[in-house]
Amino acid sequence: MTKRGNFNCMPRKYKKVSKCLPKLENLIYEVNLIPADFQMQSLQFLTERGLTVADALQGCLKYTPQEFQEHIEFVSGFDKISDRTDEATRNFYVRKMAAAYIEYYEMRASMLMLVRRVEVERAFPNSSYDWSNFPLVLRSVVIRDADGMLQDQGLASLFGKFDDDRLRSCKACRRIFWAKKLNSETCGNKKCADDLGNKKRLHEAKVLREKQNNHFKSRIQK
Fold this sequence. Notes:
Layout: H1 12-15, H2 22-31, H3 43-48, H4 53-61, H5 66-76, H6 87-123, E1 142-144, E2 150-152, E3 167-169, E4 176-178, H7 190-221
Antiparallel strand pairs: 1-2, 3-4
C-alpha cells in the first residue's frame, strides 16, 4: 500500500520535468522582452520608403519597452559609444544595432507563429489542418561563421532538438514559456497561476448558475 506523502504513484505526465535547451531558453527570454500583442515596426519597410537607417531605427524603437532598447544596444555594442565617439564609428554601431533589430524582429515573428501553430494543433488534434498540407513558412536568420560557412542562428537551427509541444504561451499573460511539466498552463509566475485559477473558478461558478437557472425554468414550465 502506498504511504501518505509518497508521490511515486502520481501519473508520469505530472511527475516528469523537462529541461529547456540553453539556446532556446535565451530565445524565449529575448522574445518576452516585448509583449506578444505589441505590433513591432518593420525597419526594412521604413528604409525602403526613404528614411535613413538611423531615423528608421529611432522610429522602430520609440514605443518599445526600455528593457528591449537596452538589450539591442548591448548586443550591438552601441552602449559603448559616448559623446566623444566620431561620426564614422557611431554610424557603424547604428548599422549594427539596425541589424540586431532586424534579426530580433524576424526571430520573434517566427517564435510567435510557431507557438500559435502548435497551440492550434494541440487544441484540434484531429483537424485536417496538418503540416503536410499547410506547412509553416518562417524566415531564417543567416550568418557566415568563422570558417566562411552560412549558418542559421535563429529558431530554425534548433528544429529536431526539442519537443515543440513544450513551447507554449501563458494563458494569463501570453508570454512564451517552456513547459517543464506537460500539464503547465502558465509561465511559472505566481500571479499568472492565481489569475488563471480565479478565472477558472469564476467560469465554473457561471456554468453552475446557468445550469441551476435552466433547471429552475424547466421545473416552472412543467
